[in-house]
Amino acid sequence: MGKLGTLLQIGRTFGVRDGLLRAEYELQRASGLMSRRMRSVRGWASWDLKHIAARTSPEDLLSIRRQGGRPFFFLDSRSLAHELSRILGQEGQSSVRAEARGILEGKLPFFGRLSFACGFPPRWFQSPVTGQRVSPDRPWTQMRFASGDYGDLKFILEPSRFLFVYPLARAYVISGDERFPAAFWSAIEDWAEKSPPMSGPLWICGQESSLRVLAWSFALYAFLNSPSTTPQRVALLLSMIAAHAWRTTQTVGYARSQRSNHLFSEAVGLWTAGTLYPELRDAVAWQKQGAALLREAVIDQITSEGASLQDSFNYQRMVLHLLLWTLRLAEIHEIQLDPEIRTRTAAAFAFIREFVDSESGCAPNHGSNDGSHILPLSACDYGDFRPLLRLGSCVLDRPSALQPGPWDEAALWFCGESAKSEEREPVYTVTSAAGYHRIGSENSWALVRAGCYTRRPFQADQLHVDLWYHGLNLARDAGTFLYNGDPPWNNGLAGTAVHNTVMVDRQDQMRRAGRFLWLDWAQASGRSFSMSFSKTSADSPNCFEGEHYGYRRLGVKHRRTVQCITEDAWVIVDDLLGAGEHVLGLHWLLPDLPFEVRAPSPFCAVLSAEKVRFRWNVFSSSPGSAAVIRGGKTLTGDTMGGDEELLGWESPTYGERCPAISLLYRLQSSLPVRIVTVILAGEALQLQQSDRQLVLSRDNSQIYQVSLAAVQTVGAGG
After folding, report:
1. Could you tell me the pTM of the whole model?
2. Strand blocks (E) in 343-443
């Protein structure tokens, strides 16, 4: 496709509305109009209290709040001390205090799991990873996120999200140590001095501005009764919040054009500024605009089934945190929001709950994962979704099967008490309309992705399978690692090669036109259903069958069947239909556990976990060979060229890359071709090949069989 054709297709991808919104934003930047607007309100003089809240004194700002006049989730954070200490236990309390002391020593949290030495107050304009700096005097209107001049800007911006205030607040509640509120106010004053309004790179993004408003508001109320919280400091903070809300309004068209979590963040930031700080001159307008934008976002981005159209479980958690924040504050302030906001929030909550593993509390690392964890209010790991489930059950008044644990903390902060546990039998619904399928049982289950895109996709992962066994993510998604690194680490893990699916002729399922842009969308269809193989839960689908048409341009259709035969046996059948000779690559990403190849052909390997060994078997209708890659290096076999650098890695959060095991099974053959993967836990089941049949038995009794013969169906239309 020529350049003109590609540009036209990009235009169709964004659509008229989004294209016009984005064009308006770019025109304002290119013409200098945005720069002139920013220069008109630079410096704190424009945001002095007398200009933004003329009838309010600094003393009034503080005293009204100390008397409960502007209520928050909690009136006095210190009243939570007893219950928080109980939730954390002695070990948890020690860990919280240690993290807070580390922050005072300059060790700041990053992306939910990492920490880097940044100094305190932080070196706001320097990457702790590369040491690269961006000039504090550089206008944000002359910058782009992906510029190579300063490395990955996300590492520079992360401290300015002020997420470190949450561990400081937690430590203050259980210890009463006044160093923690003093540290917050020291950071606020330093940030204000070094990043005056609209004049530097930390003002580049409306979403970043909005997330600061949330963090600053939480810290203000957490430290409200500390001696460090003075009228003058509160007045400064309100000036900063007013400046940030105004900044957000100036580029909200860009957020609307993106149709992503940016719009949720900016809507909630504006609504929060207008709700918690009614003294501000524009508070009513911000609250009204924020509520309208939030309604637009939930209707546009959350399906009636509750799936986020950004196709990312981490972003769905972020969006739910923003929505739960808003709903709880609206309840406290007796504000009527559009009913659709609560309806879609409840649907999104119910949806994500279906994909949280009951034993580990984790969810598949599905979709883009930029390390956003905007409410780090628990001792749980970044990948643990139970704090979200507990918080959602409290705010939405939903039953929860969770027993008391460290995941109760966020609900305590928001609601003053933990949700009550109610036993609930797991009932897993078919979410085929949203393109997500959960099959199997409570303890042995799979997520299968088969979506029909109506919005631009972010990953080329059709028919990807995520497999879970008693809390272990056995076949997994690689995550993201970096958006803005050197190739191939510039969102390289979004491609087909690293997902648990089949790649044809070493090409992605869709045509890549940028780090976040795919053309020629791969559409898929599929269904989940139940079949009687053996004793399984009657309420849970145990089979999936579907297909995608991303390789139609190559004359190939990929059809996949996933079957949970028993809790200890999974069979995945891949049929590649069409004509002509093609290179096919089946990939599985496994945890970094001891891995032994028992036989090269038919391929059989053993993955040894702590309590069980898994036998991984791969058969095909035409001869193939397997390679095992760990951390970008081939351990056994032949990859047949080209993909090793991205394989054998996983990224639990942004900026973190860990070794994993990639199993790559490749063959070059004329179509049609069938590839069968059989995964067995333990030694109780026997697998035998008889002629062109695979037979699965227990105690010499056959429970399942599947043909190894290629399906003689031609054509790749759809």
Report:
1. 0.95
2. 436-440
**pLDDT at position 535, please?**
52
| Cα angle 432-437-438, degrees, rounded to a multiple of 5 | 140
- Asked if 635 and 549 count as a contact pair (C-beta separation under 8 A), the reply is no
Q: How far is residue 390's CA from residue 415's CA, in Å, rounded to a whole number?
A: 11
Q: What is the pLDDT of residue 189?
A: 98
Separation CA 462–CA 544 (nearest Å)? 13
User: HEC states along 532-600?
Assistant: CCCCCCCCCCCEEEEEECCCHHHCEEEEEEEEEEECCEEEEEEEEEECCEEEEEEEEEECCCCEEEEEE
CA 442 vs CA 404, 445, 561, 607: distances in Å: 20, 7, 20, 22
Torsion angle, alpha carbons of 675, 676, 677, 683, to 10: -150
pLDDT in tens, 590-631: 999 999 999 988 999 999 999 899 999 999 999 999 999 999
Model pLDDT, residue 12: 67
If we measure between CA atoms, which residue out of 245, 323, 233 comes closest to residue 282? 245
Residue 276 parent element (H or E) = helix 261-276
Exposure on the CB side of residue 357, measured as CA atoms within 13 A: 23
**pLDDT cut 90: percent of the chain above it:** 82
Give residue for tokens 């096919």.
584
Q: What is the dihedral of CA 207, 211, 217, 220, to 10 degrees?
A: -130
Task: Name the percent of the chain lying above pLDDT 70.
Answer: 93
Taking the alpha carbons of 232, 204, 209, 33 in that order, is the dihedral positive or negative?
Answer: positive
Distance CA 274, CA 288 (A): 8
* Mode of pairing for the β-strands spanning 581-590 and 472-475: unpaired
Cβ(229)–Cβ(181) below 8 Å: yes
Contact indicator for 458, 516 with CB cutoff of 8 Å = yes
Q: Which 3 state secondary structure label does DSSP give 390?
A: helix
Q: Which residue has the higher pLDDT, 707 or 16?
A: 707
Please name which of 520, 510, 550, 504 lies closest in space to residue 716, comparing C-alpha atoms: 550
The C-alpha atoms of residue 311 and residue 369 are separated, in whole angstroms, by 10
CB atoms within 10 A of CB 198: 24
For the stretch 373-391, what's the b/e string if a residue is b when 16 or more beta carbons lie within 10 angstroms of its beta carbon?
A: bbbbbbbbebbbbbbbbbb
- Please give the average per-residue pLDDT across 271-278, as a whole number: 98
Count Cα neighbours of 696 within 13 Å in the Cβ-side half-sphere.
26
- Distance separating alpha carbons of residues 499 and 450, to the nearest angstrom: 13
* Predicted confidence band of residue 251 (pLDDT cuts 50, 70, 90): very high
d(CA 343, CA 337): 11
C-alpha pair distances (Å), 151 with each of 24, 134, 224, 494, 532 = 28, 9, 38, 20, 54
Q: Report residue 527 as tokens.
A: 């269904």
Q: Quote the mean pLDDT of the chain.
A: 92
pLDDT at 536: 46
The string of pLDDT tens digits covering residues 111-166 is 999 999 999 999 999 999 999 999 998 889 888 766 566 678 999 999 999 999 99
Work out the end-to-end distance of the chain between its first and last CA atoms, rounded to an integer number of angstroms.
21
Higher pLDDT, 514 or 47: 47
SS percent in the chain: helix, strand, coil, step 5: 40, 25, 40
Strands 693-698 vs 595-600: parallel, antiparallel or unpaired: unpaired
C-beta of residue 282 within 8 angstroms of C-beta of residue 246: yes
Q: How far apart are CA 509 and CA 373, in angstroms?
A: 30
Question: Can you say whether residue 20 is alpha, beta or left, with left for phi > 0 and alpha for psi between -120 and 50 degrees?
Answer: alpha
C-alpha span between 678 and 272 (Å, rounded): 52
